[in-house]
Automatic annotation (TrEMBL):
Protein name as annotated: Elongation factor Ts
Molecular function per GO: translation elongation factor activity
Any Gene Ontology CC annotation: cytoplasm
Region (Involved in Mg(2+) ion dislocation from EF-Tu): 81-84
Domain (Translation elongation factor EFTs/EF1B dimerisation): residue spans on this chain: 72-273
PANTHER family tied to this protein: ELONGATION FACTOR TS, ELONGATION FACTOR TS, MITOCHONDRIAL
Keywords, ordered alphabetically: Cytoplasm, Elongation factor, Protein biosynthesis
CDD domains: UBA_EF-Ts
NCBIfam families: tsf (TIGR00116)
Length: 292
């Protein structure tokens, strides 16, 4: 298989490994990037155990929570430039759409766009904003929580770069904000160990065992090393196992227990994650404009 420069660049972005190491891993993996990531990890060449998402789209992640704290939402609205992402009209549009999500509980983005605000469909409001602002605008995704027994808390970081929604039982506003900030900063994939699939753990054990062998460790201690590293893995990916960002002596589990509170679920949106924005060559774009 032909290994392209773009494939090497993507693998390097995900792992932090050197260009030649990335190319060799891709050749060995026959172009399978996920397999190449494992190969680099097994050889101790990957600087990132978790795959990094390409963050390139502009816009904002916004939120809204009802006055009683029972219902909340976060949503991502995309545009073409970071300049428009901070535009007041753009931010007002995102805020009104967030309020609409709270009010009508749409099933998905299409249902949201078809719903009406003051007699006008949301999709028409977006179209009007596109005409006024001069850039393409799209509502990409949203999540809405409604809590029967507890409350919902939100946190927006970096002016809309990251948004978090958390449903908790037994929490006060301070703890709710702290947990939401924890999710924003530490980016857990799961609430607790029960949510991690056995297949994922088996895969992780296999990679870690090969990595340990490649480090020259004897077989009789590899199993103990793998167990230790799996526990470290849990501390990275499970919210309740993580160290509290405000106090490294506390885990989130201990913090929640001390407050007699629990986390029901959480969602974390990072602006543009999973979207690779087209990178135009400025010189070529200028030349194109001049030739028109």
């Amino acid at each position: 298989m032909n290994i392209t420069a773009s494939m090497v660049k993507d693998l390097r972005t995900q792992t932090g490994a050197g260009m030649m190491d990335c190319k060799k891993a891709l050749v060995e993996a026959e172009g399978d990037i996920a397999k190449a990531v494992d190969i680099l990890r097994e050889k101790g060449l990957s600087q990132a155990a978790k795959k990094a998402s390409r963050v390139a789209a502009e816009g904002a992640v916004g939120s809204a929570v009802s006055e009683d704290g029972k219902t909340g939402t976060i949503l991502e609205v995309n545009c073409e430039t970071d300049f428009v992402g901070t535009n007041e009209d753009f931010r007002n549009l995102a805020a009104s759409i967030a309020d609409q999500i709270l009010a009508v509980n749409p099933a998905d983005v299409e249902a949201l766009l078809d719903s009406e605000i003051d007699g006008k469909k949301v999709r028409d409001l977006v179209t009007e904003a596109v005409a006024k602002i001069g850039e393409n605008i799209s509502v990409r995704r949203f999540v809405r929580y409604e809590s029967a027994e507890g409350k919902v808390y939100s946190y927006i970081h970096g002016g809309g770069k990251i948004g978090v929604l958390v449903e908790m039982i037994g929490a006060d506003d301070e703890l709710g904000k702290d947990i939401a900030m924890q999710v924003a900063a530490a980016n857990p994939s799961y609430l607790d160990r029960t949510q991690v699939s056995q297949a994922e753990i088996d895969h992780e054990k296999e990679v870690l065992a090969v990595e340990a062998r490649n480090e020259g460790k004897p077989e009789n201690i590899i199993e103990k090393m793998v167990i230790g590293r799996i526990n470290k893995y849990y501390k990275e990916v499970c919210l309740v196992d993580q160290e509290f960002i405000k106090d490294g002596d506390l885990t989130i589990s201990k913090l929640l227990k001390s407050k007699n509170a629990s986390v029901v679920r959480f969602a974390r949106y990072q602006l543009g994650e999973g979207i690779e924005k087209k990178q135009d060559d400025l010189a070529a774009e200028v030349a194109k404009q001049l030739n028109q």
